[in-house]
Amino acid sequence: MHTGQIIKALSGFYYIKTAGGKTYQTRARGIFRKNKVTPLVGDYVEFSFETEQEGRLEKILERKNSLIRPAVSNIDLGVIIMSTKNPDFSTSLLDRFLVSVEKNDIKPLIYVTKTDIIEEKKYNEIKTICEYYRNIGYSVILPACGETIKRETIKDNLESFINGKTVVFMGQSGAGKSTLLNKIDAKLNLKTAETSKSLGRGKHTTRHVELISVLGGLIADTPGFSAIQFDDLTQQELILCFPEIWENGKECRFKSCIHLNEPNCAVKKAVEQESISEYRYKNYVTLLDEIQKRKPKYGKKGEK
Ligand SMILES: Nc1nc2c(ncn2[C@@H]2O[C@H](COP(=O)(O)OP(=O)(O)O)[C@@H](O)[C@H]2O)c(=O)[nH]1
Ligand SMILES: [Mg+2]
Ligand SMILES: [Zn+2]
């Protein structure tokens, strides 16, 4: 039996890449359909083959994690692409991306694009925000103000993070995900906002997920999405996704403190003293509010 990782799923075929770098076209065994198991891009699998075009996916190995949008499994790194403008930099969106990454045990990396078209004042505001995220433990790549990004710079910044990893590029539509990947490897020729306009096809693109080989790693370039909802996140899980809130929360009077209205809350005190930034706390409260307002899916009648 051979092992490899699914790098593409299309029209009932699964394309499996081995450690040696060869790709095999396979079909899944009927047993998967019978058991309603869908192999995912990113899955490590066992397979057999007659030829490179005729293989059989035999077994899915245990998944470390999986995302629904995009449908990818075993992700090591989530690169969150945030533009300085067009669309505007937004900490509330950034925090949503961070929560979606953190809750799936994926390591986040924040990458800021479009620093070439921003005036210095706005750049410095974003730089201060980036410093805050670095201080609470996140890796942030913020290219210099006014700099037109070259392939070598991107490579220097990203290679050590990406090499040997399964990576998802995420971020709002228009943030510059495809542009960044094209700059790393022009052969990819991924469609960007500009190219889809010039082709006159509007925004209609096929949405199959594919892992592409870049900088020694495998990357999924996702179509942009701006609304992220959390349907199964609990309050306690949310706290774990905000490292500085979790850390300060150890000093709260109540162990079960959710840092909203409880007395002697160390988190609220830290916000007052500005060691936790106000926007982070606000973003936390917004998400907490969404969790509390969420209708229970499986709750019995009369239960809250
Ligand atoms: N000035 C500038 N424009 C960029 C940069 N990155 C992307 N863009 C532009 O932003 C638009 C959206 O980029 P695209 O890569 O399609 O974004 P995606 O939706 O995240 O894949 C395109 O018109 C790009 O040319 C950048 O670093 N600087
Ligand atoms: Mg794109
Ligand atoms: Zn508290």
Automatic annotation (TrEMBL):
Compartments (UniProt record)? Cytoplasm
Q: What is its EC number?
A: 3.6.1.-
Q: Which Gene3D superfamilies match?
A: Nucleic acid-binding proteins (2.40.50.140), P-loop containing nucleotide triphosphate hydrolases (3.40.50.300), Probable gtpase engc, domain 3 (1.10.40.50)
Cofactor(s), names only, from the UniProt record: Zn(2+)
| GO MF entries | GTP binding; GTPase activity; metal ion binding; rRNA binding
Record bears the keyword Oxidoreductase:
no
Q: Which residues form the EngC GTPase domain?
A: 73-226
Q: Which residues form the CP-type G domain?
A: 64-228
| Positions annotated to bind GTP | T113, K114, T115, D116, G171, Q172, S173, G174, A175, G176, K177, S178, T179
Record's InterPro entries?
G_CP_dom, NA-bd_OB-fold, P-loop_NTPase, Ribosome_biogen_GTPase_RsgA, RsgA_GTPase_dom, RsgA_N
The residue stretches assigned to a coiled coil in this entry are none
A single Pfam family, by name?
RsgA_N
Q: Does the keyword GTP-binding apply?
A: yes
Cofactor, how bound (note): Binds 1 zinc ion per subunit.
Annotated binding of Zn(2+), by residue: C252, C257, H259, C265
One Gene Ontology cellular component? cytoplasm
Q: Which UniProt keywords apply?
A: Cytoplasm, GTP-binding, Hydrolase, Metal-binding, Nucleotide-binding, Ribosome biogenesis, RNA-binding, rRNA-binding, Zinc
**What does the entry give for GO biological process?**
ribosomal small subunit biogenesis
Q: HAMAP family annotated for this entry?
A: GTPase_RsgA
Q: What does this protein do?
A: One of several proteins that assist in the late maturation steps of the functional core of the 30S ribosomal subunit. Helps release RbfA from mature subunits. May play a role in the assembly of ribosomal proteins into the subunit. Circularly permuted GTPase that catalyzes slow GTP hydrolysis, GTPase activity is stimulated by the 30S ribosomal subunit.
Q: How does it assemble?
A: Monomer. Associates with 30S ribosomal subunit, binds 16S rRNA.
The family this protein is said to belong to: Belongs to the TRAFAC class YlqF/YawG GTPase family. RsgA subfamily.
- The protein's name in its UniProt record: Small ribosomal subunit biogenesis GTPase RsgA
Provenance organism: Alkalibacterium gilvum
Q: Which gene encodes it?
A: rsgA
